[in-house]
Amino acid sequence: MRCPARRDTENMSARRTNVGLLVALGAAFATGAMAFGIGSGWNVYVSVSHGVAGFVIVLLAPWKGTIARRGLHRERPGRAASLALATLVVAALLFGVLHSTGVARSFGLVTAMQIHVGAALLSLPFVLWHIAVRPARLRRVDLTRRHLIRSAAIAAMGTLILVASKGIERVAGLPGARRRFTGSYEEGTGDPAQMPVTQWLNDGVPSIDIADWTLTVGARSWTYEELTAFNETTDALIDCTGGWFATQHWEGVWLRELLGDVTGARSVVVRSVTGYARSFPLEDASRLLLAHRVAGERLSPGHGYPLRVVAPGRRGFWWVKWVNEIELSPRPWWLQPPFPLT
To answer: Domain boundary at 183, 203, 223, which?
Structure first.
């Protein structure tokens, strides 16, 4: 029989481990979502923070394992949900490492990145359930200098492991050493035929009869022949949240040239024939190209034929494909979900 003092110490240690895991999981979710949405250079700080949070979870796993083993000896509701949460977190960590190192990037029709993200999203309701049913509350005693130093030490260890893993990737010549700061791998630069064809969630490649297709901009409609008369060009990098990037030479028309009078507008809404849409700040119109050609060739259906958005500095889900409608809106661009819902 354990003495009360030892039991109290174990309970306190378990609570602090659970609080630490909750903070690390929250940081991993937040930085993961931010890394998905940010295409500019400071994404590197978000991505590094995401990696550190992941390794902190790994460091806390042995302590959590001890807590879990004690809990498995007691019959209480929710055991299956707890096991499901643990399995999903382990899967997210494992496939995140497989993608980041490049050791295994795809498994049949799915990629390691997709499994990593999918496992993380599936774990979220279980995390919320765990917080509601078995809350791990932060207490004043947890904010003492000793415990704050211990927490900082664990975060520092996570950072050192991340740095060491990057060094191992370079020394071992693993593909992960050649990733972009977003975590994406180069595929198809200068060769659109080798560039992956990906869509957001349930979007699919439509069959478009160019004789019936037009681009509607306000009160005016443009035919494909009229748009191909424009030949503005730009070299731009597309970085897909699916884990790949490519730099291509795009040809088309700058969006600003088609808008006309923009009085009262605050944003530009670009829609696809599939119903997919994104709103952009009006000031971005001069930097957005509506491309009808890539690398000197007509766009393929999978890459957006007849017209797609080229949005430098934004992740791939902003590069709307199969565009057929553009409208000015008085609503600010940020009044939309940060990620498309469909």
So the answer is: 183
The pTM score is: 0.85
Instruction: Tell which residue, 95, 146, 142, has the closest CA to residue 116.
Output: 95
Cα 199 to Cα 183: distance, rounded to the nearest angstrom: 19
277 near 270, Cβ under 8 Å? yes
Residue type, 289: L
CA distance 190 to 187: 9
* Cβ–Cβ under 8 Å, residues 283 and 209: no
Maximum distance among all Cα pairs of the chain, rounded to whole angstroms: 85
Token pair 């291509």 is found at 248
- Given pLDDT bands bounded at 50, 70 and 90, which one contains residue 229? very high
- 268-286 per-position pLDDT tens digit: 999 999 999 999 999 999 9
Q: Which residue has the tokens 């302590």?
A: 63
What secondary structure letter does DSSP report for 299?
P
For residues 172 and 217, membership in a common domain is answered with no
Q: Are residue 84 and residue 222 in the same domain, yes or no?
A: no
How far is 183 from 251, CA to CA, in rounded Å?
A: 27
The residue type found at 305 is Y
